[in-house]
Queue: 2 jobs
Job 1
Amino acid sequence: MKSFFDLRGQLVRLAFGENPFPQEPKHVFVLCRYRDRWLLTDHKKRGWEFPGGKIEAGEDAKDAAVREVYEETGGVVDRLVPIGQYQVFDEREAFVKKIFFATIREIRQRPHYHETNGPLLVDEETLAKPLNDRFSFLMRDSVVAESIRYLKENRLPDILSPEGSENGKG
């Protein structure tokens, strides 16, 4: 388990595995891959970020992840893999976000993208560099970098190869 402070000064604990924290996640965060690029959304207030949001009443985390990806980007999830969770301690409470990796089958045009300006595709190199102010604060702490490192180390399941993502299997 890794601990660090985010850009707002809140303690964050990050762990990989199915359910590393005793409390149920209330939010999802989805690292999305479409062909050989990362699929982000352009949040109207926060900037560029991976899709995610609250788990609604009667919804499980996987359903929330699929819904959030579609609402915020038009992305249709092909495969969805839970990779970990992170716990944030804010001034009121501690809450948990479940982290998923998703491969995207297609991106559909939508009449609106809820609180975002829609999809944004970025290459591997863009996320490998220090992220600037165009990116949401959610992208500029250790969660994204550590999650991508975890995906690469575990070849989950060979998802970062362009061949795997181009043919709809990765």
Job 2
Amino acid sequence: MNAEKGDAISKQRPASDAGRSNLITLSLRTRLVPQEGWITFLLLMALLISVVWSVQQADWVATDNLIAVVFWAALAGLILAKLKAPWPLLHLAGVVIGFIVVMWQTAGLTEAESIVLQVQEAWTRVTLWTNAALKGGISTDLLPFSLLLFIFGWLVAYLSSWFIFRSRNVWVAILLPGIGMLTNLSYLPDPFAGHFFFFLFLAMLLVVRMTMLQRISTWNRSRITFNNVRTWFTLNEAVWFGLAVVLIVALLPLKAVSPPQLRSQWEEMRSPARRLEDEFARLFSGLPARKTIPVRIFGPSLAFQGKIALSGVPALWVNSDYPSYWFSHTYDSYIAQGWVSSANHKLDIEPDGNLVSPQPYKGQITVSQSVKVGFSSDAAFLGGDLVHVDRKIQVKTLTEPTQTTNTKSTEVPIALDIVAARFSKRLNPNDAYNLDSSVSLATDSELRRTGTDYPEWIKTYYLQLPGSLPDRVKVLAREVTR
């Protein structure tokens, strides 16, 4: 009897071991394969890489490591999304991992030999860029821009993966990369539009995949039987349907037609973003231009930057009795990275206000001028010393203006050191404004006979040369201006 019992136990052991082995295999499969399936991760990666590809094709800066950053970010988002822990701790872990990966990839863009020296050089260059950003300076170093691309790439990929595998929210995974794609394409010429259609195709596949997974979850909760093979047929059908939709959209004629009022409202809405663009141009002046622009608008700084692609379309139509140099900004300080303006005094002038100089120049007359702009801008182009303009403007001066208490007065005394003027309301293409300007009729010989009794503000801001200035520079300056 005991022998028979022992034989029975020995016969049951292999079955028990096999069951335990199957449980271990099932557990490993559950841990290594997400419920959404690896096909979901691959579709997400393809979507993210399509955005990275558009950035790399633009060739703004060195971004060879951006795909690696996006991959590690998406993988970290997947792993952390499956952990049973408070989400603040998981996001903190994601930030730490992202900091390590981003700094590692950014340091690899430097020319130092060891990883320690690479990190030190990257940290130093980012610190210099930060100082320029805080103190109103100019930066031509492109490494900080690569760093920002890595940071944005990590955040977009990590959050997209997190929401996909944590809450099966596909719209975050499409919205964030979509914003990156459209932002990049907005600064690129039309031939790059094909990247968006490829992105749209992948986004459709990802939506179909996540919708199918949500239906499967609903069927499982309702204990409805279904064929898993059918889900693959659904994805296959989505591929062909998506290709057809993208092909039709790509072949449709694209012509932007919008009412003038809608275009004006859009320009007003974009005004905060446009101010950020001015700061962006100051801090990343080394970036090349990939898209032709009608005109180069000058702000508080003029950096020695990369290529500027102008469209060749007329920017201004001017009607004036006397020719003049038309300017939108002047600069009084030269630094290694470019020119900057130290003007920090502002004065708002109403349309009925006239600017009167406390020290009027000799040999000048007041002329009437009209200007029609061919682009959207708030910059006022001046063709001499401004006297009057028929729109409300804000002028910037080097010295504090001597003004009346009421800026709506018909006469506003102001020093003749206006370096820039901005309209209170942005002008649209083909808008016009009228102005009166004081222009000089003095000849070259008359100017040379005036001597060196210059106004104080000219001596302070434009003749503040050090005593150690080499004589060869003075000689060259005289030859150039002769």
